[in-house]
Amino acid sequence: MSDDAGRPSRPLLTAYVDVDRLERNLTRFHALAAAHGPAVRAHVKAHRTVEIARRQLRAGARGIAVNQVAQARSYVAAGITDVVIAHPWRDPWRWRLIAELARDCRVAVHVDSLESVAGLAAAAASADSVVGIRVQLGTGDDITATADDTLVGLARAAAAARSLSLDGITGYQALTTAESAPDREAVGRAAAEYAVRSAGLLRAHGLTFRTVAVGGTPTAEGAMAVEGVTEVCSGAYALQDAGMAAIGVCAPEDVAVSVTAEPGAGDALLDAYPYPWQTPGERMPRPGSGTVHLLPPHVCALMPQIDHVTAREQKRPDSTWHVLNQMDEPDRAARPATRSPQAARTPRR
User: Which stretches of the chain are DSSP H helices?
Assistant: First the structure.
């Protein structure tokens, strides 16, 4: 981080990860998923570090989810080779990035338009790769928003393209109001039941696929209990945050990340993208730390604001984990395609 003259500047926020709390969170969440049956997909937007992603895989995660292909490449370079691009990008230049990534690892991408299906099919054919398609159900505000005939049309188009594979369907129902937070498990169950119902609709049309995925940490316990859900995609469960603690998803003592902030200077960063039940400016100190260490209101909003975290573990020296905040760029997609040495050793699916 630097000032306008290019000189190093003091960061407004400093973040710390308590590794012992992190490991307890992973053990608890993955044990719950194992008891119900669905696999866990770790949405790494809630920590953006290779170190935590590796711990999630060791705990049993099937793979990771990212929003940016540029960030995905850092995880693939670290040996993580099952990736979902968890956003229905409609930018044609991104389709090439996704298709190129699919030469190096298993890739599936959320899709909500026929134009995206066709564009990804063409990009994958040009890159000599196969891209998995997850048909997105509705929106975060309303998982039921997409008409049945549209879902069927998207799935059929994906299944028909030789350079694509129909990986399945995916949906996410956010807690859109403060009033919905106490009913988070019921919200998760309803979203999962709708996803299973939609999967049945597609199968009734002769379509086959492996994945019925539902997203979200606060609603995960309700979703994973629904028979027919094969995957739960969650992010905040690893570190947790003050927002999760405020509605009982975890206790304040479970939050594995804390921050120190320059007085007043870090407030705008900490208050970015509040949950519906939060009031900007509310602060939850880490239990036992006085007012020195604060629990971040929303961990997914914190990580884009920092470039590293300090990891602290009992009986071990502190270590630095770099936060991956690379963003996709159109000019990257315009460069000639090159096949990496690793890709040459990666069999086509």
Answer: 19-36, 50-59, 69-77, 92-101, 114-127, 148-160, 184-204, 220-224, 242-246, 267-270, 299-302, 330-334, 341-345
